[in-house]
Structures are given as C-alpha cells and as structure tokens.
Amino acid sequence: MAKNPGVKPRIGLLGTGPWAGRTHAPALARHPGIEFSGVWGRRAEAAAALAADSGTRAYDDVDALFAASDAVALALPPDVQAPLAVRAARAGCHVLLDKPVATTVAGAREVAEAVEAAGVASVVFCTLRFAEPTARWIEEQAAKGGWFLGEAHWLGSLYGPGSTSAYAASPWRREKGGLWDVGPHVLSVYLPVLGDVTAITAVPGPHDTHHLVLRHTSGASSTATLTLSAPPEAAEAALTLYGAGGRAELPRWDGAVDAFGAAVDALVTAARTGEPHPCDARFGLRLTEILTAAETEAARHPQDGASPEGSPDTARSASHNASSAAPYSRSGGVA
C-alpha cells in the first residue's frame, strides 16, 4: 500500500556517486517542504560521508531506509536502479527515478508494473522536463502544435580529448554511450511536442555516436545526433522545431539542482493527488522501448557504411519495435 506523504514527506536517497552528490543530495537537503530521511549506498563509507555532508543519516540496510521514508530518490546505474525501485514500490514508497529507468525493456516494464500494482507515485527525472525555462518552453510548444520537423544535436564531450569529468568513470555510460545517456533528454522533449514515435531509422557514427530519424504520431519527423565523445570545442546541446509559425529553439538552462527540486515537488503532488505525472515510470518504460529499438536498428549497420544483408527490411523491423507498446496518451502525457 502506498504511503501517505503527510505534511512534510520523508524522502531517502539511494546512491552516492557524483550525480547523487552534486544534484540529488543538495536538492533534498535544502528543500523546505521535505525531510531528507537518509542515504543508502552500495559502499557504506560513501553513504556515511554523503549523509554527514547533507545533515542526515546513513543506512546500511536499504529496507530500513524504505521503512523510514515515504518516498525515495534513486541515483544509481539504470540496471541497479530498476530492481531497487521495484523493492521500494512494493514497500509502499513513492519513487523518483533517474533516466533511463533501465536499459532493458523487461527491467523498465517491471518497474512500471510494480509502481502501478502498489499504487505509488513515480517521476522520472528527465532534466529538461523540470528545469526552467525548458519545462515551460516544452509546454508552450506542445500547446502551439503545427510542428512538422525537429532537429537535435546533443554532443557531449564526456569521452572527448582532455576530459576530466567525474562521470567518465561510469561503467554503464561507457558501455551504453550517448544513445542511452543523452537520448532520453531529447526524447523527453520530442514526445510531448511531436507525439509518440512510430518508426525509427538509426545508424552508428564515430565512437559512441548515433544518428536517429524518427516518425511521430503527429505526422512530424525528427532527427537526433547523440554522442558523449565529441571534441570539447564541438560540444553542444541544441534542439530546434520547425512549423507553420516558424522555428523555435530550446532555451538554455542552468544546472540540475533546482530542476531536481521541481521533480521532488512533482512527485509529492502526484502522491498527494493520485494524479500520475506525465513523466512517470510508464513514460520511462516508453523511453526504454524506443532506445532499445534504436540500438537494435543501429546494430544492423556496420560502421564502415556497408549495407548489411537484408537491410531493406530494417526500417520495417525498427518501426515494429518502436511501436511494440500502445502509444502513451494519458492526459498530460504524449499525444
């Protein structure tokens, strides 16, 4: 049974890495509307240090943290996050998930089903859906409509020459690359504005680069180039929409701590009202389905540019994979 968040919800944190330390913990510690109930991590000493810095307590037993919390935020590798999110939901805790929810459709579906079975609220922290002014911009463009084309470049330099980023040591990012790390950001904009994805073409580029062409339920098409290996001089994150009213460019945003605070507010609101947030675990599952279809499609294309045997059927196969779940059309979600 889902817990009642009360006047001042108790929210715990699972994870102690750079993302947890730089974003989740500071946002929870300074949020005036919640009680930061504690930290659990796979390394007890790291959990103790982060808890001490954040003015809360560390837990050696994750189930004890669940018992002491109304909700939990997760800052863990996706395939570590997913089974722990299932356990949290079954313990009655509302869940604030990181993107991607999981890197397998089965893992993401298990989370969505556990959330629904337990009746708990869920939010997936796709930064652009909660940061100002990007969140407002997305709502405005979705309401405006009339878009026929989207073009996005998310060129991260995490693995570029001379990078000293703390996130470069992340094994899952090294394995899955820009498609899975920054792909959810682009999709989290495209889906509410252009509609669900109905077909995908994807080819690999240099290093971890992926080039995507998407078709949407609105009839619009979009493109995305995604990588974590761009030279620092070429790094950018940009998305432009084209339509009857001209063009609209995604505005710049600054930092993630305030955005995470807004995601906390969204989770608490969903828990209190029972109204699902558009960017919830079911939406997270859809992102995983689309990314899996793109990864499968890209794997059919050798990086030397030669066409694989049977390539005429590739687009049809990718389209089938992309639409394997019903379009996400709950009120406030993807049209």
Describe this entry's structure for a reader:
This protein has 335 residues and is an alpha/beta fold. Helices cover 40% and strands 21% of the residues. The chain is built from eleven helices and twelve strands. It has helices spanning 18-30, 44-54, 62-67, 78-90, 105-118, 134-144, 171-181, 183-194, 257-273, 281-298, 314-322; strands spanning 10-14, 35-40, 58-59, 71-74, 94-98, 122-125, 147-155, 197-204, 210-216, 221-227, 236-243, 246-249. The strands form two sheets. The chain has a six-stranded parallel sheet with strand order 3-2-1-4-5-6, with helices on both faces. Helix 1 (18-30) links the parallel strand 1 (10-14) and strand 2 (35-40). Helix 1 packs across helix 9, helix 6 runs parallel beside helix 8 and helix 10 runs antiparallel to helix 11 (314-322). The longest helix has 18 residues, at 281-298. It starts with 9 loop residues before the first strand and ends in a 13-residue tail after the last helix. Mean pLDDT is 91; it is low at 305-335.
